[in-house]
Every structure is written in C-alpha cells, then in structure tokens.
Design brief:
single chain; about 100 residues; alpha+beta; 5 strands
C-alpha cells in the first residue's frame, strides 16, 4: 500500500509541475461544474453560481482567485485551466459534463 501512495504522490507532483500557476482561491471562489464545447474543443466554463464564462475569462478569474481547484497551463500561446491533481479522478475537468449554451463573451 505504501508504494501505491508514493506513486500517487509522485504522479500528482509531476502533474502539478505542468502548471504555470496555481492561484490561491478566495474563500468564496466558485467551482467549475461544466464545460462549454464547440466542435469538441473547450471554449468556456460553467461555474457553480450558474454563470458561463469564456476560456479566457475563466483563466483570468482563476488567476484572481475566483475559481478553485484549478491551475493555469499553456499550450503554445494559449492559456487554459487544468484541475489541480488531488488523487480523485471524478472532479477532473475532463470528467465534467458539457454545459449547454455559449460562453458569455
């Protein structure tokens, strides 16, 4: 069992190293509860307060501590949000349902 825990800790540490920034969330920070997708690509996030924001606005809100449980990563010139590894798969962004509607721009 101890080796499995060490492996999980190592995997979580590696995953955290892929993040550019792990903002400190405010006490009233919101959760991401759904993903807005167009043609299979994430274009926005549905928040726990019912608001839907664009991917760019979600990144900005996370950097301000307004969204919890996520870090900021980048691919080429585009920043996006990733779940902070916590050993639980069911709360990862990729496992969230698709949200209806378009992101508020």
């Amino acid at each position: 069992m101890k080796n499995q825990e060490k492996d999980q800790d190592f995997t979580a540490a590696l995953a955290k190293n892929t993040l550019d920034d792990i903002p400190t969330p405010k006490s009233d920070a919101k959760d991401i509860v759904g993903l807005v997708k167009e043609s299979g690509k994430i274009t926005g996030y549905q928040l726990s307060d019912g608001n839907t924001v664009s991917k760019e606005e979600g990144v900005a809100l996370a950097k301000e501590g307004e969204i919890k449980g996520v870090g900021v990563a980048h691919r080429k010139d585009t920043e996006y949000l990733k779940s902070i590894p916590d050993g639980t798969e069911n709360n990862n962004l990729g496992n969230l349902p698709s949200a209806s509607g378009k992101a508020d721009l």
